[in-house]
Amino acid sequence: QCAGLEVMCNLSMSPEVLERFVDGKASVELQLLGAFCQSEEPRASIAASGALAMLADTPEVAERIAECQHCITGLLKLLESQDGNLQHRAMVLACAVVEASAEAASPVLEKVKVRLAQGFSSSFARGLAEELVKENA
Length: 137
Prior knowledge:
Elements: H1 2-11, H2 15-22, H3 27-36, H4 42-55, H5 59-67, H6 69-78, H7 84-100, H8 102-118, H9 123-135
C-alpha cells in the first residue's frame, strides 16, 4: 500500500493526472488519499498528505479537496500529529482548503488554533498556522 501511495504522490503533479483531478474525474482517488491521511502507518499518511498538499496548490483541486469529507477528516487528523513532516503537509493543505472554501474553513481554522496552542514541532508549520489564523481573524 505504501509503495502505491508513494507512486501516486509522485505522479500527482503530472499533467495528465492533475487534469483528472481538475476535471473532477478523480473523486475516488481524493477519498482514498483522505482516508490514508488517517493511517497509523507513517509512510502511508506522509505519502497521502504530500499528494494532497501538492494537488491543493491548484485552486480547482483545492476546491474539490475542500468538498471531500474524507479529505477534511484526514486533514483534521493530520493536524493532531506530533510528526513535523505531517504538520508541514497538514498546514500547506489547511491553507489551501481555507482559501478554497468558507464552509470547510471553520472546522479547519478551529483545529489549527488548537494545534497552535499545543505547539508545533515544525517551525514551518507553526509559521503557516500563525499567518493563517492572523489572516482569518
